[in-house]
């Protein structure tokens, strides 16, 4: 998505070897017009996949997920994060390790909002090592729901998440794919490759 | 907002004397089409207020705030919640007490995304005792920004938040105003009163 790549070039900040901060339009301040275009883009890609529900994780996934849900006219569910979790009968739960923060979180979804009738599109802000996507996929499996595909705003292709998803044969579409950070600059994968 | 009141009657669950659960369309599962209509409604009400920025708190405020920002074509900033906070020079911070959870949270916003040039519309999912709104207003004052008004999805008018805001002379618009819970049923304030 050309406009997103341009926005990353303009407003993203590369920190160290593998962190990109996009606090000015995605993770803290949000550009709602850009979010709407992302929703349209995800819809264009997955419109024939029979999506019945959008799944994401709080908080940064919510804006792109809701805009995508609006296009599909389906409900959006966001998993809640907890430091620890007391197992509850009414929740699907999974553990997610963050390599950036070096901590584990639990994520959970109420059993009321995911069932075997659902064909789920996962939407998330970043794909790095694939931990969040894995956690959401565990929950989808526990609910006996099916996974229609994964839509990612920004993929860091040099980390292992993308490879794991491709290996599992899951359809994935990332709006911006970052090949590398070089001298504090973002290098994108060529589009439509 | 008639459609919202009907949805609360249909899908809301009254718990005890003062809690309303709307997990099925607002706080966990989100109805994006309803969110879009809320954004339009807030825009209609505040369109002449000179709003330059929308402010909310993660996570449940994000969806209505982003849809409102889309109508106004202005950025949305969501305050992050922390259990505790180490004071940082680059953050505006405030403390928010939750009567429901009986815990204090700190909320913070990067100083980069709020300035004296901003005229802020606060959007939040619930207004009860007004703690979250107060915390956001503290941050707006610390940034020397101005407050254009407050948009609330669901107001529990029998708690003290609304009264405090009215007393402070701040323009507030709530899409659904709950007068009382009676026998597990929601009683709304008359519209356009």
UniProtKB/TrEMBL annotation, chains A, B:
Its EC number is 2.4.2.22. It is found in: Cytoplasm. One of its GO terms (molecular function) is xanthine phosphoribosyltransferase activity. Its main location: cytoplasm. Keywords: Cytoplasm, Glycosyltransferase, Purine salvage, Transferase. Belongs to the purine/pyrimidine phosphoribosyltransferase family. Xpt subfamily. This is Xanthine phosphoribosyltransferase.
